[in-house]
Write a structure and sequence with these properties.
Elements (H helix, E strand, L loop, with lengths): L9 E7 L3 H12 L4 E4 L24 H14 L3 E3 L5 E4 L5 E4 L4 E9 L3 E3 L13 E2 L2 H4 L8 E4 L3 H10 L6 E4 L9 H8 L3 E4 L3 E6 L5 E6 L4 E3 L2 E4 L3 E3 L2 H5 L23 E3 L10 H19 L6 H7 L12 H15 L1
Parallel strand pairs: 1-2, 1-6, 2-3, 6-17, 8-15, 9-10, 9-15, 10-11
Antiparallel strand pairs: 4-5, 5-6, 7-16, 12-13, 13-14
Length: 342
């Protein structure tokens, strides 16, 4: 569907964030018959992926941008709007609907899905190239470092834990403090002493890359040079929870949005999925959360079946009242089915 930003739009579902979680929510709500728009400002962790790992049916040669572009084409083929716009504010009206400000217009929706994710804390340069020696997802990328020299950059408990975890894949693991003092606990320090991990205190002075752009070695200010295939930066996460906070949604201590198993927040009609919520930050997990939320939204918005109370108040459903799908999506579904049959 094309979008004219000079006009106002009403949707049943508005998804804020165009990563795997948000796009999957939109896929489900659109296919289940609800007028849906995705608002995506671009970027995000999935877009940074050089290769796609751990997603059954998707070749690893597919980049994050290619993966997301295919998903956008899919939701548009079913009738969803994909809008490259930044939602600056969301308000709740007295009638329960949400108003989303995009800078160009005010959009209304009956349900909102927040899929705004988080940003990894990024250390100061000099650094290896992201995806070519600098990585943030242990569960995605540990496999590529089997029997390879690896660093973990950081100084807190999470850095210490990840370094010890990497010993499951290689016998050559260093922690790079980069001139910082360790902030891990005494218990963690005792653990580290019992594991064959080198702790490098000196700051990084330079990076050596191969012809293919992959990291080969790191130079330190004390004059030493250490070879690495790559490693992980552990400097925390910044959750993009501003919209959830403005609506009064409950947050967890770490800044994630509190949700139930179907992505429902503490605010009726407001859902959160993907990296903005607790759990493993993985594409398949995010997609599963998006699917759960999409189905939950459908069950809350669908026209039929009418309850006994509704039938008693409104009378029986007449043949002209069905189907309950929006006319534009009904037409799109017929065109989609015809195209598949060609």
């Amino acid at each position: 569907m094309s979008t004219d930003p000079s006009t106002s739009h009403d949707y049943e579902v508005a998804v804020v964030g165009g990563g795997p979680a948000g796009l999957t929510s939109a896929l489900y709500t659109t296919r289940l018959g609800h007028e849906t728009a995705v608002f995506d400002r671009g970027g995000g962790r999935a877009a940074m992926m050089q290769e796609t790992h751990n997603v059954i049916g998707v070749p690893e040669s597919v980049s994050g941008n290619e993966f997301l572009q295919t998903a956008v084409e899919q939701i548009e083929s079913y009738g969803a709007d994909y809008r490259t716009e930044f939602v600056t504010e969301i308000d709740r009206r007295d009638d329960g609907a949400f108003e989303l400000e995009t800078g160009d217009e005010t959009v209304t929706a009956e349900a909102v899905v927040l899929a705004t994710g988080f940003s990894d804390g990024r250390p100061e340069p000099p650094l290896p190239r992201t995806g070519r020696g600098l990585h943030y997802c242990l569960h995605c990328d540990a496999y590529m470092f089997v029997d390879e020299p690896v660093y973990v950059m950081g100084h807190d408990d999470s850095a210490a834990i990840v370094a010890m975890i990497m010993l499951n894949y290689t016998d050559d693991v260093d922690i790079l403090l980069r001139g910082d003092e360790p902030t891990w606990s005494e218990e963690r320090a005792t653990q580290l002493e019992g594991h064959p991990i080198d702790i490098v205190e000196a700051e990084i002075a330079g990076i050596q890359n191969g012809d293919d752009g992959w990291l080969e070695a790191i130079e330190f200010e004390d004059g030493s040079v250490r070879e690495y295939k790559g490693g992980f930066a552990m400097y925390g996460s910044e959750y993009h929870n501003e919209l959830a906070t403005s609506l009064g949604a409950e947050l967890n201590d770490d800044g994630t949005v509190a949700v139930d198993d179907h992505g429902r927040t503490s605010i009726d009609g407001l859902y959160a999925v993907g990296d903005l919520t607790p759990g493993h930050n993985q594409v398949p997990v995010a997609m599963g959360q998006g699917a759960q939320a999409g189905i939950a939204i459908h069950m809350s918005l669908r026209e039929f079946p009418k309850s006994i109370a509704e039938l008693e108040a409104e009378g029986a459903v007449e043949p002209q009242d069905v189907p309950g799908i929006a006319p534009e999506l009904r037409q799109q579904a017929n065109e989609h089915s015809s195209a598949e049959g060609d």
